[in-house]
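Pasting as-is:
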Amino acid sequence: MAAARNSHALIIIGLLLSCFILFVSAADDNSTAALTVGFYKNSCPFAEIIVRKYVNKFVTFNPGFAAGLIRLHFHDCFVRGCDASVLLDGKNSEKQSIPNKGSLRGFEIIDAAKAELEVKCPGIVSCADILAFSARDSAWKAGNIFYEVPAGRRDGNVSNTLDPLLNLPPPFFNATQLRDNFARKGLTLDEMVTLSGAHSIGIAHCTSFLGRLYPTVDPTLDPKYAAKLKKICPAPVANATGPPKVNPTVNQDTITPIRLDNLYYLGLKQKKGLFTSDQDLMTSPLTSNIVLNNIQFGGVWATKFAAAMVKMGNIDVLTGVQGEVREHCRH
């Protein structure tokens, strides 16, 4: 009798454990989900069209916004994943971090798209997806590079000033440091060089590359180009205790500065890469052959760029019941 009772008890315990495991598995399945193309086709079928409308409007008015939106997406994904944390306001937010403060652009475009989407489809389209769509539409507008964007990202609610400094590659990184930085995000060496082609559009502040001009010119920089840059960017003030009062900007690409294309790499071959992180792609034997291939095969580079943008857009995403869909992207 005792043996029978024990056997019966063990069966009950086993059933309870099985139910618990099934419950936990079901909860896990609901907490995460893969991003999918056409995620909003039923819940908000005009979502991507609305985002594209505002990207086209703003980029037509100012082509620099295309570079701004692609960079915004990059700075979002490399910090806490693609969760729109870069859009959050606050005195200790990512916006206030040194790599971002005063240089990120395109917030008003995200705000405009979000405002209309909240009217048409309240509480449905995440800020993180709006940012991913806007980066894709910028690539199309600036370089005729189109790709489908898998969606379903959710928004995070944490934004920390220190995080960009710990995750974003600074402009003085060499090719080896860039490789390691991108590898930590699951991106390959080739994808790192490919995504660097986004520097074929946009502008940069002088303080980002002054070290290549003063006190002596970096020998990997074309002397005539360096002389031109010196006319725009004054030497840093000795013993300065704060940021310069004047910090001019220059185009990142000297050949086609508002066109997203592979001529960025030709500029590197001509020793006209603006940042150390640009020029070292050509100088380093680790990456020089990739640069030369990108010069020769522009169509291949564009295809790789599209694929790398999709992969980058999948970094540490929140999906399912993770995160939230913010009503306002700034808070």
